[in-house]
């Protein structure tokens, strides 16, 4: 499921995203209202965290708040604006200060791990397409944080722009694999262990001689099997995805380092 940001009215979305610390509804005379933009957005984030983006609707958010979906429209005009607000607000969790005492590589490593774990806490964020940026303050701040780190490399702007895109593509793809692994048992009704036991046995029966037909793959599986640890309690594919993340991150950092040295 892909969700495109920026589907609401442009002016209303921008006004809500960039609103001041004191929203208009809080400055009205009389009793303090029971709803606010922040409360609605926080509730929507909790809903998406718990049930996924497919469960998100104005009605579902209203039910969590004990209100009708229509009551929300006074504060958030539509689901389009709500997605924009959710995405930008949750980005505010990301750290913004990374020390450079140990150099750009150490700072970038911590940034990448923080961002990867953030995606795993909020997997619905990965469903918000990067084809249409939200253009909110926290989205800009997260980009500002990364660019500040990368400027310490001394690379020029075009190369830094390329590195920024590469890092985000890598992190989103890697975290997306873990997210899908976690969703698969509930979505299919079959655990990872059950799936692998059934498929691997059937594959060997129906397609014998795999080692001879695909020797490079057989070498890879054999060479890495001895180094695999199963003491962490993680599903096999999540464990492999985590190892791939660490390996891929190291390779990317080596590449940046080589570009700086060149």
Automatic annotation (TrEMBL):
It comes from the Bacteria. Keywords: DNA-binding, Transcription, Transcription regulation. Residues 57-76 bind DNA. InterPro entries: Homeodomain-like_sf, HTH-type_TetR-like_transc_reg, HTH_TetR, Repressor_TetR_C, Tet_transcr_reg_TetR-rel_C_sf. The keyword Protein transport does not apply. Residues 34-94 form the HTH tetR-type domain. PANTHER family: HTH-TYPE TRANSCRIPTIONAL REGULATOR RUTR, TRANSCRIPTIONAL REGULATORY PROTEIN. This is TetR/AcrR family transcriptional regulator. The lineage of its organism: Bacteria, Bacillati, Actinomycetota, Actinomycetes, Streptosporangiales.
